[in-house]
Amino acid sequence: MTAMFDRHLFTQIGLDSGALTMLGSIVHSFGEPGEYRATVRSGELPEATFYISVDKACAVAHVNIDLAALVNPDPDTSGCPPTADRHFVVHPKGYAVFHVSGGPGGYSVNVRRAEEDPELKAYDSRRLEPGDIFSAILFRPGRYSVRNLLSEGQSQGQSQGEASVTVAYPVPGDTAYRPPPAAVADCGERIEPGHIDLLPMQGLNFHLRVPGRIRIDLVEADDGPKSGDSAPDR
Amino acid sequence: MSDITIAASANAFTELFNDLRDKFTFIHGDSRSFAVFTASYAVALHLEGGSIALNNDNTVEVTDVDVVWDTLNLTVCFDLPGWCLGGFCIVPDPWNGCLVSFPGFCVGGPICAPLDLSGLVSKIADVKARLVPAYFVDPARLPAWSDLDAEIAGHPNKWRIFVDPEWVHVDPIDLPASLPNLFENAVKKAINESIPSWVPNWAKDILWTVLGPILDFVAGLLGIVGDIADFLTGLLSDALPGGFDLLGLIETAVADYFAARNPIWEFEDPYPLTDGGPGMHPIPVKIPLRDLTALIDSNEMVVRADVGA
After folding, report:
1. Which end of chain B is flanked by fewer CB atoms within 10 Å, N or C?
2. Contacts of B276 (CB under 8 A, 6+ apart)
3. Among residues B139, B137, B167, B131, which one has the least CA distance to residue B264?
């Protein structure tokens, strides 16, 4: 019997806030009440549409929006067009959490006011806004580079808009391991701190202070104290 | 005074009993669902050895019969929620801990840990029984048949003498001290086998780290309070609510086997004095038996019966 393991959890090592996979999520607060129409995009192509009501009368502080489920909804045998699971409601000061529950992902989100007013700027998750949070979990032990792709070209040196992260290799202990609370990084003109040490499965939250697109790449893998088979008797 | 008396010495009775004992087999299986796990077992056993004592109080006592577990497999299945990602906080809530969490997902699935305890030997400590005669009417015998017809057809009525246990006491299964280790290894093996081969080693190492000590993990998952060995023993016995009560099953099976299903001796009724044939008696000579009794003293088994329809 084989357990349920999503292959993409272990094969997609890097992250890009502009192309969300299972390992990342974006937290965005709309602020302005209103009706919003949004599309899930893979590259430039819209894959699915959904709606967000940002309503003062709604006490919902956060709403999880699973982009994978929007793109690949469960088969509907009713014959009716799916609507209920494509409409989300959140308080203006609440948060929409865009995430990918499975599959290869690679999604971004584009959100516009339903009024179609050209003066109103769309929200494009490929360009995170100040106040957004990009939350990541790095499974693969090793050393990573973190860059704000939108700060490149503006930076005066390599240190600006770039940081490094080290993810420790897991070491079985006398008790079950539980990761500590997520680490926090500020993504302003610089990413602070410039180096982040993470324990296995520890989350990492980037708080955007400037427009940004966070990209995390594995620089050097850490295969642990052994490079052979995983010991079956552990 | 009885018309017919048949006796079997203590040694002969012992032979009869041993023959009966050797034919005893018990094969059984069952599965049950508990709150967070399911368990199943398969057993096959036979009996060996033991000492027989005929008592003057009309009882026979059998002690120290070995229960040889040719098969004793116990399987515990549960969902492995071992690897839940997420849950870490993104936006803290000053009042309620966390306002927004990383949407989590779990990898894992159902796993089954089989324990093979075959080859164990436990004991029936004590069986105390009386002899009970019972009249058996062969259900295959047709109403119109005469006794001769029934004998020719192979379905005669019979007097049967059963060893009817007053009690059967089976000692608790003496599970090995290494039982927790066996279970731990079974769970590890099951988890390993549940992980697809393409999962990289570093990911497996994360899994084992998150799971932690396997017995602690399983104990927490299954809600086991106390020792794993006690839990498994309780599962096989009735110490755990809903347990399989194997000892009770065996005691019942042994009692049923001797008391109702397999007589230690049986006589055709009418009892054939001669088989019949071309000599003096061309047809069999048979006498009906009634009021058959079977008694025991320290020397022998004595069966008495009267002749008459």
Report:
1. N
2. B282, B283, B284, B285
3. B131
Our measurement of the distance from residue B213's CA atom to the centroid of its chain's CA atoms, rounded to an integer in Å, reads: 34
Token pair in block for residue A217: 């790449």
A3 and B109 within 8 Å at the Cβ level: the answer is yes
Tell me A190's DSSP state.
Answer: S
State the ipTM, two decimals.
0.83
Low-confidence stretches of chain A (pLDDT < 50) are 1-3, 154-155, 228-234
Beta bridge partners of B210: none
Question: What does the alpha-carbon distance between residue B294 and residue B288 come to, in Å, rounded to a whole number?
Answer: 17
Among B88, B100, B203, whose Cβ lies nearest the Cβ of A139?
B203
Tell me which residue has tokens 């009770």: B248
pLDDT tens readout for residues B117-158: 999 998 998 899 999 999 999 899 998 998 888 888 889 999
Q: Which residues in chain B have their CB less than 8 angstroms from residue A9's CB? A: 85, 107, 203
Instruction: Tell me if the bond preceding B156 is cis, omega within 30° of 0.
Output: no
CA distance A229 to A46: 42
SS3 B179: helix
- Tracing tokens 């609440």 back to the chain, one arrives at A94
Q: Reduce the secondary structure of B46-57 to three states and give it as a string.
A: EEECCEEEECCC
Q: Residue A51: its pLDDT value, please? A: 94
pTM above threshold 0.80: no
Q: Parallel, antiparallel, or unpaired: how do β-strands A133-137 and A24-28 relate?
A: antiparallel
Angle (deg, nearest 10), helices B228-236 and B179-194:
90
Q: Which helix (H) or strand (E) holds B286?
A: strand B285-287
User: Nearest-CA neighbor of B47 among B27, B67, B26?
Assistant: B67
What angle separates helix B214-222 from helix B179-194, to the nearest 10 degrees? 90
Q: Give the Cβ contact number of residue B227 at 10 Å.
A: 14
SS3 for B191-238, per residue?
HHHHCCCCCCHHHHHHHHHHHCCHHHHHHHHHCCCCCHHHHHHHHHCC
Measured between CA atoms, how close is A117 to chain B, in angstroms?
31
pLDDT given for residue A177 in this prediction: 86
In sequence order, the 6+-apart residues with CB closer than 8 A to the CB of B24 are B46, B47, B254, B257, B262
Peptide bond into B270 cis (omega under 30): yes
Comparing alpha-carbon positions, the chain B residue that sits nearest to A134 is B90
pLDDT tens for each residue of B47-64: 999 999 999 999 999 999
Whether the CB-CB separation of A8 and A103 falls below 8 Å is answered with yes
Which of B111, B211, B212 lies closest to A3 in CB terms? B111
> Which helix (H) or strand (E) is A226 found in, with range?
none
Choosing among B75, B79, B88, which should be mutated to test the A contact, i.e. which has the most A CBs within 10 A? Answer: B88
In angstroms and rounded to an integer, the radius of gyration of the C-alpha atoms of chain A is 19
